[in-house]
Design brief:
single chain, alpha/beta, Aminopeptidase, Aminopeptidase i, Domain 2, 5-stranded mixed β-sheet, 12 helices, binds zinc ion
């Protein structure tokens, strides 16, 4: 049972983990840290797996997706898996290669691409930083570059908005171009500094080198060994995958602190609700296998090796079956028949200023409890069977449950559940918590909903 004190702790953990998870790479680092602290051990995709009943494991894919397993007392063939899925990525801006644009007075701005469908207005005039993966040369084994997961931590960029004096109609709707309007500025430099930067491959590469060589980063070779004593040169720095993130920390808001606000609530709030449930049930004796599947690239359609459209989760399930019942060609299919998936991705909460956008009878409110998402055209995996399972779990956990259905004239989005169905013919339900301003640089959700979601997901796994 989650007590009042315990809920305070869960929310402060949530806010801390939201702050630490600056991008998909860091979200996986944070989840990995929590799993290791709880005694989960890492399985490598390339190794032979040995699984013990009751054992807790995790496996990573690309550093941006992670799958935690708590093996059941019974094997998968007879008791199936209880799967919670969510995603690690959020809309943002990613740096292009050769990203510097040198302007008048030595002003340097960055050439970026939009990742996912963010609300671009919300990114203006904020302190921004950068985080992600950097690849370092590995002369002995070019197929396995050395990986650095990096975070600049400090506000190092901003996207200044045009003054209203140059566009008096700005408040009447102002279409934005990513290429023209959204270039972040990182500072101004004198010609000698710029020459020096160019010798190192540009401002960003110079700053990356400075950051890595200051010992500020987590540097791993392909075998996961930490490398700390090697000085990295401009020639060593092969490539990067960096995204911008807003620096303002997550926090509580509302007269009674009913809400929490942060970047990347969609979908890290669900990833962390699933993580809490996984950690809570790690020590209990469960018949079926619990799985937390945190995929990447949901915001761009999931069609990558670490996305929900790929066979990554199916392969994990097949592998568990192969370890537990070698040679049984039917084990996997029987496992699927016993399994159930809760796909957890945040939902649109009713917005008091835009009643006309919502379905008249099925609009979830912030603070009303977890939300079941339904769509007649199967954009969600939910059907009445899946919804019934989730509603019963909510009842058992003592929490409310709401429905989200699109206004019939509005085309909604889709999420992980229906995409996973392409790979797994599994029973399941699409759920989430109601949030405001989905895909804004700063989203808002209800504190009580998060606690309720942790309760129901824990109920599901135990
Ligand atoms: Zn989402």
């Amino acid at each position: 049972m989650i007590s009042k004190n315990n809920s305070k702790e869960i929310i402060s953990r949530l806010l801390q983990m939201l702050d630490e998870s600056k991008c998909n790479f860091w979200a996986v680092e944070v989840v990995k840290r929590e799993l290791l602290a709880k005694g989960f051990s890492e399985l490598k995709e390339a190794d032979e797996w040995k699984l013990e009943p009751g054992g807790c494991y995790f496996v990573e894919k690309n550093g941006t997706a992670i799958f935690a397993l708590k093996v059941g007392k019974e094997d998968l063939r007879s008791a199936g898996a209880r799967i919670i899925s969510a995603h690690t990525d959020s809309p943002c801006f990613k740096l292009k290669p050769n990203c510097e644009i040198y302007g008048d007075g030595g002003v340097v701005s960055l050439n970026v691409e939009k990742y996912g469908g963010g609300i671009m207005y919300t990114w203006f005039d904020r302190p921004l930083s950068m985080a992600g993966r950097v690849s370092i040369a590995n002369q002995e084994d070019p197929l396995h570059p050395i990986t650095v997961i990096l975070d600049f931590k400090q506000p190092i960029a901003t996207i200044p908005h045009l003054a209203i004096h140059f566009n008096r109609a700005v408040n009447e709707g102002n279409p934005l171009s990513v290429q023209k309007d959204m270039k972040p500025v990182v500072g101004y430099f004198n010609p000698e500094q710029i020459e020096e930067f160019k010798r190192n491959g540009g401002v960003i590469r110079s700053k990356i080198l400075e950051h890595i060589n200051s010992g500020n980063c987590h540097v791993e070779d392909s075998m996961g060994q930490l490398i700390s004593d090697r000085k990295i040169t401009a020639d060593d720095l092969i490539d990067y995958e960096l995204s911008l993130y807003p620096c303002e920390p997550a926090g509580l808001v509302g007269l009674e602190h009913e809400y929490f606000q942060s970047a990347r609530i969609d979908d890290l709030s669900m990833a962390f609700a699933g993580l809490e449930a996984m950690l809570d049930t790690a020590d209990s004796e469960c018949n079926s296998t619990g799985i937390l599947a945190l995929f990447d690239n949901e915001e761009t359609g999931s069609a990558t090796k670490q996305g929900a459209h790929s066979p990554v989760l199916r392969h994990i399930l097949e592998r568990i079956c192969a370890v537990q019942n070698p040679g049984d060609a039917q084990a996997f299919h029987r496992a699927i028949a016993h399994s159930f998936m809760i796909s957890a991705d945040d939902a649109h909460g009713w917005h008091p200023n835009y009643n006309e956008k919502y379905d008249p009878t099925n609009h979830p409110v912030l603070g009303g409890g977890p939300v079941v998402k339904i769509n007649a055209n199967c954009k969600y995996m939910t059907d009445s069977d899946g919804a019934s399972v989730f509603r019963q779990l909510c009842k058992k956990a003592g929490v409310g449950c709401q429905y989200f259905v699109n206004h019939a004239d509005v085309a909604g989005g889709s999420t992980l559940g229906n995409i996973s169905s392409v790979q797994l013919d599994i029973r399941g339900v699409d759920v989430g918590n109601a949030i405001w301003a989905m895909h804004s640089a700063r989203e808002t959700a209800a504190v009580s909903d998060h606690i309720d979601m942790v309760k129901v997901l824990t109920e599901f796994l135990k």
